[in-house]
Write a structure and sequence with these properties.
By secondary structure, this protein is mainly α. It has a single domain, classed as Orthogonal Bundle (Non-ribosomal Peptide Synthetase Peptidyl Carrier Protein, Chain A). Helices cover about 55% and strands about 0% of the residues. It contains 4 helices and no strands. The chain has helices at about 5-15, 45-55, 65-70, 75-85. Helix 1 packs across helix 4. The longest helix is centred in the first third of the chain and has 15 residues, at about 5-15. It is globular, with a radius of gyration of 12 Å.
C-alpha cells in the first residue's frame, strides 16, 4: 500500500473511531497537526488511535515520546506504519 492510500485509509478510520462528526476525509490535511490541532484530538483520543494502529496494522507505540512523534500529523503516522508494519500487512 502506498503512502497516499494509507493516509486516505487513516483519515476514514480516525473520523470513525474519534466520532469526528462533520469532518470529511477531504477536509483533513495530511501535514496538519493531529493532536491539539483543529480537529480537537486530545489524550483520550490518542489512546484510541494507539489501539487502532496496533490492532489494524500490527504496529506498537509504546511510549509517550514515540506517540508524540507518530501522531504529529497524518503523514507522520502513515510513515511510521509503513516503516514498522510487519511485512505480511503490506
Amino acid at each position: 500500500m502506498d503512502t497516499d492510500t494509507l493516509i486516505e485509509e487513516l483519515k476514514v478510520k480516525l473520523i470513525d473511531i474519534l466520532n469526528l462528526s462533520g469532518v470529511k476525509p477531504e477536509d483533513m490535511d495530511a501535514e496538519a497537526r493531529l493532536v491539539g490541532g483543529d480537529l480537537g484530538i486530545d489524550s483520550i483520543d490518542v489512546l484510541e488511535m494507539v489501539v487502532m494502529v496496533e490492532k489494524d496494522y500490527g504496529v506498537i507505540i509504546n511510549s509517550q515520546e514515540m506517540g508524540e512523534k507518530v501522531f504529529a500529523s497524518l503523514a507522520s503516522l502513515a510513515a511510521h506504519i509503513r516503516e514498522n508494519a510487519p511485512a505480511s500487512k503490506e
